[in-house]
Amino acid sequence: MARVRMFRWTWICFWAAIAGLCALAPTEGQQQCPPLGEISPCSCTVKKNGLDILCEFTDQQHIIDAMGKLKGKTLTIFYLKLRHNNLRKLTGFIFLGLDIRHLTIHNSSLSVVEEASLSSIGKMLTQLDVSQNNLIQVPSQAIRNLNQLLILNLNHNKVTSLHSKAFQGLDTLEILTLYENKITNIETDAFVGLEKKLKRLNLGGNGLTKIPQKSLAILDMLKKLEMQENRISDIQEGDFEGLKNLDSLGLAHNKLRKVPAKVFSHLTVLNSLELDGNNIDTIDSEAFVGLEENLQYLRLGDNNIHTIPTDALKGLHRLRHLDLRSNNISYIAEDAFAGYGDSITFLNLQKNDIRTLTGVVFENLNSLETLNLQNNKLMHISEDVIEPVLDTLKVIDIVDNPLLCECDLQWYKNWLRNLRDKDDDLMQKKRAVCIMQQEHREYSLQSLPLEKMNCIIKDYGLVNAGRGEICRPIGFLATTGTVLYVTVMLF
């Protein structure tokens, strides 16, 4: 019986060992790179979803030879990256017999893409990047059969015009980016075929002088439109008609001087609007009509705005982020944020010409977390002005102002002391200072010499544990130590 048991145990161990060896052997379909040097000067690494093949700093013939060595093998090339090469022409059927999912031909002097060069990989390819080359037009005939393509990157080429039906056949395309070309003309039917899926379109960094409304109107699934860094000098009502699902619009760094009435009225779900870096000096009181329910991010920095455009903004009751940096604002009216300030969490007013903050200017900013007043002309920031937002503020930047050292600045030290999760390194870099005129020297606001200034030192928020009351002192004179409290009962 003992021998039988021993035999059975030995047999079990034998088959277990065989199973272990099989587990270590390559399974059918598992990806393996070609033998080292076979596709030289290209290199290969195995990734989770297939092979990653890189060919760089070589020429067309070496690339053709390497592709030839890969043909006939059952391989999934998840990434094929041809970068920094001398590859002026993509010849017909160069990828025949290959399964390529992501193809990058970057900075390789590519100027000609033959019609049959990509057709053999049309059923597999999902991303095509031909950025930073010498293409002067969209290679429409070569890409028309890429019917699984999701992303097409034509950035940094020399395309001057988008001709009719330039992208026809790309029914699945979701992202099209043409940044930094030389496009001055977009024909009416240029985007025909992209209506069903296109979500993001980047036309930034070109030479457009107006919104190509008729071309864009069919893209009713578009979520993000980027037209920054063009030469657009005028926008008008109706320019964005048809873009009913647009969430983000970028018009920064153009040549706009005014924002007319109802220009965005068709963009009823718009969440983010970038108008910074223009020369805007006029914003119509009805400029943002239609954006009331959804606009949360508005960038108006680097323009020529002289006052906060309250009449235009007051209907934007969901606005959270308002950027007015680098304008010519010198005065903030007490009702500047009335009607819309309650939802704002971020307010940027840096690099303006603001000289005074008076009255209840921040009273409507009940949710404010970040306030940037850096690099203005402020000499005084009293506690009465800043008090309405002290409880919610997490960041306040008041550096690069000619602040005078005054007793009324001690609120800053208290706010900083009570601030949770503060970035000490950042606070050290952003160290706010004031000037003591009598001594002609600077002091950090965190270490104001209150005794030397004969200030009434305030003891903020002292809690009476026995009665649950907050005792708010009027203060005590630094020279006498006398304390006088006013007690506020909390019910």
TrEMBL record:
InterPro entries the UniProt entry points to: Leu-rich_rpt, Leu-rich_rpt_typical-subtyp, LRR_dom_sf
Residues of the signal peptide: 1-29
Gene3D superfamilies (UniProt xref): Ribonuclease Inhibitor
Pfam family, one: LRR_1
Key words, A-Z: Glycoprotein, Leucine-rich repeat, Repeat, Signal
Protein known as: Uncharacterized protein
Lineage, uppermost ranks: Eukaryota, Metazoa, Ecdysozoa, Arthropoda, Hexapoda
